[in-house]
Amino acid sequence: MSAVVVLCLLAGLSEAAGRVLPLVARRPGMSRTLVIGLLLAGALIEGAVIALWPLVTWTLAELMMPTAAADTAGLVWTPGLIAPLVLAAILAFPLLGPLLHLLLIAAVGVSLTGPLADATGLDWGLAAVCVAAAGLGLAVAVDLVRRLVAMILATGVPEPVR
Known about the structure:
It is built from six helices and no strands. The protein is mainly alpha-helical and 162 residues long. The longest helix has 33 residues, at 32-64. Keywords: Membrane, Transmembrane, Transmembrane helix. It comes from Kribbella sancticallisti.
């Protein structure tokens, strides 16, 4: 379990760095404290989103077929399942390979689909829909948070009137 937490945080840090460093490059006057704070906050948020993907997927599967999923423990990350996601986060770090990043995330989603289908008894296609919907929903949520933070940073703090 601790390996999964470390991998989630590593993937979160890499994703956050890929989003924060271009911002720092465009605004060279940012303080180190702000940059480090953004990196740490982003790493925690991204890591939490990554950790939540199987849980949200499981919840969607239960909504589709509540009786089949009630007696099993749920879908959880294993180091083998999350390792490709960490690789995808590292590839997204320099924002050089968005298509490859998307393909790796899709591959991780496919690797989650099999265990979900086995655990719930859902058809593989329905399990894939649950995984994709959960991933897309979490991605939209974190993108909204990113845009909100960017908007707040763009407006800045007004100077006090003297």
